[in-house]
Design brief:
The complex is a heterodimer.
Chain A (H helix, E strand, L loop, with lengths): L1 E3 H11 L5 E3 L6 H9 L5 E3 L3 H15 L3 E5 L3 H15 L4 E7 L15 H5 L5 E4 L6 H13 L5 E7 H5 L1 E3 L19 H13 L3 E5 L1 H5 L3 H11 L3 E3 L14 E4 L6 H9 L2 E5 L5 H4 L10 E6 L13 E4 L2 H12 L11 H11 L15 H11 L5 E4 L3 H9 L8 E2 L10 H11 L5 E6 L9 H8 L4 E6 L4 H10 L15 H7 L3 E5 L5 H10 L5 E6 L34
Parallel strand pairs in A: 2-3, 2-4, 4-5, 5-7, 6-7, 9-10, 9-12, 10-11, 12-13, 13-14, 15-16, 15-17, 17-18, 18-20, 19-20
Antiparallel strand pairs in A: 1-8
Chain B lengths: L1 E9 L4 H11 L6 E6 L5 E9 L2 H13 L3 E6 L5 E12 L3 H13 L3 E5 L3 E8 L1 H10 L5 E6 L3 E4 L8
Antiparallel strand pairs in B: 1-3, 1-4, 2-3, 5-7, 5-8, 5-9, 6-7
The chains are: A alpha/beta, B alpha+beta.
């Protein structure tokens, strides 16, 4: 069958089983958009900005486990997409981005809407391709999906010059491709697995430390089985939340900069850290020199480069988390049963730390506490909603107080920390999960970075519920300025915010303003009862609220700053 | 510690910049770099010299290995190996005594004069890093007009090749 390059792009996506393409047209992509117009099945979602398209594809991917697909034009279309691509790269999200490019003959001549997109994106993609021959187009797209989805997932970009999309070629979409230089290791080494298990059995103060890798590998079931069998304490990173059910008693909370007291103290005092799909990043470890001084490390990761990068691994295990955990569960049967008595003292110590209630906060009858909003959201949605967030204080409160029961329900930009992610991501989640409750917890700073996607939500009837925790500040930056810059609030006060209710209404949605603590729960119930409408809740919160506990940068896990009414008071905060 | 890292790379435009970009993005240093196509025209061999402790080099090797375009990578300096660099050096050579002295030095280092004018010699020399460095410092009895180094390349000793 002879097809044009443009038709090959669209037919390849269809044959790959792509449900949604998030994109925005433009000159170099016109042939492709024409092919979309003529295609019966392909479902293209027109976002209002290319950044929105990438975040939407990202949210779709994180919530469904399928690969997100983006289509944009050359030059500014592609550069606008870069933030979303980098966001997906940092969190290892499978994504295929197809960018139009100026015709081959014009490449390198500073042509209109030309940018070296392969060059610009090289450091923030898993791989990228420039297609120079229409005969390679279908295979290149197949390779892009293969690379994006296997091993440690990530975004892959395919740059297609306009003349290639006009040329014709025989169309055949391969079922499978092999790349000689790319064979990710899936199965763990049996000897290493045995060694890891033996170390776990010998440990007196072990802790299981789980990251986003467990979510990406769809390993929640195996993880839960493994953790329950051992009866050991488990902590999860921001990206790992939901891999193990948070309401379970073995879960001792998120760790890291805004982790619970018990999780960070347990890491600090542990004699064995059993890391599963987690990469010891700086927001988790604090000062590496002070991090977990007496712990040995067993580390399972599909990416060998993540093992031992920041902290030496005593037992490295390269492999897919799901496969390795299955091997471990099997191998554990050959070993003597785990004796829970061995960790009785350890659990006693942890329970003492827990009794501090480091996430406790005081309600106010006049000012809405942002933490309470998240707790109320949890109750109103039964803990079953998909929750996306932007970046800042609200993100941390969402992570701390919405106790995720399942993987892929918590959708946030953990690695890159991209403000503007929340709303388009929520939209992508809703596309992938049309009947689910989808909440976007955001702030008055972040929401304005991709507010234009409210128009997309209207066009496609995406009934996302936006909870804007409005404190008229860039709260997290303000918090740092309060603690570490003697309250010099440089450019963190938002003194001309729009009227969010009117703004939302002008986009054709329902707006609500909530100012009274007593009204929060009722307003949430009302909002979620509107099943087919997007509701934007402008929730006016206490401006002075800070995120606790906090490990100040450069400090260790045992040097947490607690709420002033807890152990000590934060440095610089009177 | 000085390391010689050698890799086989898909011979496609832009692949070299993935390796170079990785070094700059992660603030690793490259002291020299050579790249050319192999007997298999689909693959290039890239050899670079860098410095770092064991943990640093391990991370570099892992990151290079992650690049989809890299077929195989090895730290040549971790095992017995042969390294060679080609240098071309143009020096002022005026008058019989200076010309004789340079010629003697060239002979001692088993180098070769491959270009002659009435006032300069161009010398070619190959060797490992120690030999080339010593030659460059010795030849400075004459004024250096210019120096071109190919960068280090290398190959492992023994029967095995990088592909196997």
């Amino acid at each position: 069958m002879e097809l044009t390059g443009a038709e090959i792009v669209v037919q390849s996506l269809h044959d790959e089983g792509v449900e949604f393409v998030f994109g925005y047209p433009g000159g170099a992509a016109l042939h492709i958009y024409d092919a979309i117009y003529n295609h019966e099945h392909i479902n293209h979602i027109l976002t209002r900005h290319e950044q929105g398209a990438t975040h939407a594809a990202d949210g779709y991917s994180r919530s469904t486990g399928k690969t997100g697909v983006v289509l944009v034009t050359s030059g500014p279309g592609a550069t606008n997409a870069v933030t979303g691509i980098a966001t997906a790269y940092m969190d290892s999200i499978p994504m295929v981005v197809i960018t139009g490019q100026v015709p081959t003959a014009l490449i390198g001549y500073d042509s209109f809407q030309e940018a070296d997109v392969v060059g610009i994106t090289r450091p923030c993609v898993k791989h990228n391709f420039l297609v120079k021959n229409v005969n390679n187009l279908a295979e290149t797209i197949k390779k892009a999906f293969h690379v994006a989805e296997t091993g440690r997932p990530g975004p892959v970009l395919v740059d297609v010059p306009k003349d290639i999309t006009a040329q014709k070629a025989h169309y055949h979409y391969p079922d499978d491709v092999t790349i000689r230089s790319y064979q990710p290791k899936i199965k763990g080494n049996d000897r290493q697995i045995k060694k890891g298990l033996e170390m776990l059995q010998a440990a007196k103060r072990p802790i299981i430390y789980v990251g986003g890798g467990a979510v990406l590998a769809n390993a929640a079931e195996e993880l839960t089985h493994f953790v329950r069998d051992t009866g050991l304490p488990i902590t999860q990173t921001l990206m790992g939340l939901g891999a193990y059910p948070a309401p379970d008693s073995q879960f001792i909370g998120m760790l890291g900069m805004h982790g619970t007291y018990e999780a960070n103290m347990a890491m600090h005092e542990a004699d064995l850290i059993f890391a599963i799909g987690a990469r010891f990043d700086d927001r988790v470890t604090g000062d590496l020199n002070k991090f977990a001084p007496s712990a040995k490390v067993v580390q399972i990761d599909i990416d060998p480069a993540s093992i031992g990068k920041n902290r030496k691994a005593d037992v490295p295990i390269v492999g897919d988390v799901k496969v390795v955990l299955t091997q471990m569960i099997e191998a554990a049967k050959q070993l003597p049963d785990y004796d829970p008595k061995q960790t009785e003292d350890w659990w006693k110590t942890i329970k003492q730390w827990q009794s501090l209630d480091s996430l406790g906060f005081e309600l106010d009858d006049k000012l809405i506490k942002p933490q309470q909003v998240v707790k109320d959201l949890y109750e109103v949605t039964g803990g079953d909603a998909f929750v996306t967030s932007d970046v800042g204080q609200h993100q941390m409160w969402a992570a701390q107080y919405y106790h995720f029961k399942e993987p892929r329900k918590w959708i946030n930009s953990g690695g890159l920390g991209t403000m503007g992610f929340g709303l388009p991501a929520a939209m992508g989640v809703q596309f992938g999960n049309p009947d689910a409750d989808v909440a976007c917890i955001t702030g008055d700073g972040s929401i304005l970075m991709c507010i234009q996607e409210l128009a997309t939500c209207l066009q496609y009837g995406m009934p996302v519920k936006v909870l804007c925790l409005n404190n008229r500040y860039l709260g997290m930056v303000r918090q740092w300025q309060e603690f570490f810059y003697e309250r010099r609030y440089s450019h963190t006060y938002m003194d001309s915010l729009p009227d969010f209710v009117k703004l939302t209404e002008s986009f054709g949605h329902v707006g609500m303003r909530v100012e009274n603590p007593a009204d929060v729960k009722g307003a949430l119930q009302e909002a979620f009862a509107l099943k087919d409408r997007l509701v934007f809740m402008d929730i006016v919160t206490d401006q002075s609220e800070n995120v606790f506990p906090m490990i100040p940068s450069g400090a260790g896990h045992a040097e947490m700053t607690m709420r002033p009414d807890k152990l000590n008071s934060p440095k610089g905060a009177a | 510690m000085r390391r010689i890292i050698s890799m086989l790379l898909e011979n496609e435009p832009g692949e070299l910049s993935r390796v170079a970009g990785l070094f700059s993005a992660r603030a690793y240093n490259i002291e020299s770099l050579t790249v050319a196509v192999t007997e298999d025209p689909t693959m290039s061999r890239l050899t670079l010299v860098t410095k770092g402790d064991d943990a640093h080099i391990e991370q570099i090797l892992k990151q290079i290995n992650k690049l989809i375009a890299v077929v195989k990578v090895v730290d040549l300096s971790a095992n017995p190996h042969i390294e060679r660099e080609l240098i071309l050096i143009k020096v002022i050579a005026k008058g019989n005594s200076q010309r004789d002295e340079i010629k003697r030095l060239v002979d001692i280092f088993e180098a070769e004069i491959i270009g002659v004018t009435d006032s300069t010699y161009t010398v070619q020399m190959t060797g490992d890093a120690d030999q080339t460095d010593s030659f460059i410092s010795a030849i400075q009895i004459a004024e250096i007009v210019e120096l071109a180094r190919s960068g280090v390349t290398g190959i492992s000793r023994g029967k095995k090749g990088l592909k196997g």
